[in-house]
Amino acid sequence: ALELMFVDALLLADKHLGISSSIHNPADYSK
């Protein structure tokens, strides 16, 4: 359940930032 919440949070943040490429490029999260 926590994993799903984490992924959902990332998706929401992605929508807010308008960066869809970050989903396909996990390396961006480590920067």
Number of domains: 1
> pLDDT below 50 for ≥5 consecutive residues: which ranges?
none
Radius of gyration computed on alpha carbons: 10 Å
Net shape: flat
pLDDT averaged residue by residue: 70
Compute the number of helices.
3
What percentage of amino acids are in beta strands?
A: under 5%
Care to count the β-strands? 0
Structural class: mainly alpha
Order of helices and strands: HHH
Largest β-sheet summary: none
Alpha carbon gap, first and last residue = 26 Å
Description:
With 31 residues, the protein is an all-alpha fold. It has one domain (1-30). Helix content is 77%, strand content 0%. It contains three helices and no strands. It has helices at residues 2-17, 21-24, 27-30. The longest helix is centred in the first third of the chain and has 16 residues, at 2-17.
